[in-house]
Write a structure and sequence with these properties.
about 150 residues; alpha+beta; four-stranded antiparallel sheet; 8 strands; elongated
């Protein structure tokens, strides 16, 4: 990109004589172009703080169900459904982020009971000591046969 802008500048320098104000305006335009290209690349790579990380998504509560001492909250996200596991006596938040993990479910282990695909996500349901808990992974991945909610 820098070589392209240098070549562009050389062509302009040899073809016309600009005033300092015109050069300043040209330089500002090139800086703006380079900044927006950098932001576009950051968005595509999931690193832009304004747009958030691509792996993190927010969703609204779709449904929930109780299993033992756990409640599984299912949310509709941009890339499909994702699940959160909370205490069975708690109310599911109306919205949640996929990468946030419930303090209640941390540390419990379980074996794969079932799974299903929703959009770009796969919801893996595990049977743990205190009831079912869920993990959300990529739809192209296989659910591990056992898991620990971290």
């Amino acid at each position: 990109m820098k070589y392209l802008s240098i070549l562009f500048c050389l062509v302009l320098v040899t073809s016309c004589q600009w005033t300092p104000e015109q050069w300043e305006e040209f330089n500002q335009g090139m800086s703006d172009l380079e900044e927006s290209l950098g932001e576009s690349n950051a968005i595509l790579n999931g690193r832009n703080s304004y747009y958030g990380n691509r792996t993190s998504q927010s969703g609204n509560l779709n449904r929930d169900y109780v299993s033992g001492f756990n409640k599984i909250c299912i949310y509709d996200g941009v890339s499909g459904e994702f699940a959160k596991t909370i205490s069975s006596t708690s109310l599911c938040p109306l919205s949640a982020k996929q990468d946030s993990i419930s303090e209640f479910a941390k540390g419990q282990s379980g074996f794969l009971e079932r799974d299903y695909v929703s959009g770009f996500n796969k919801i893996c349901i595990y049977d743990g000591v205190s009831g079912e808990f869920a993990k959300t992974i990529s739809s192209t991945s296989l659910c591990p046969l056992s898991a620990k909610q971290d």
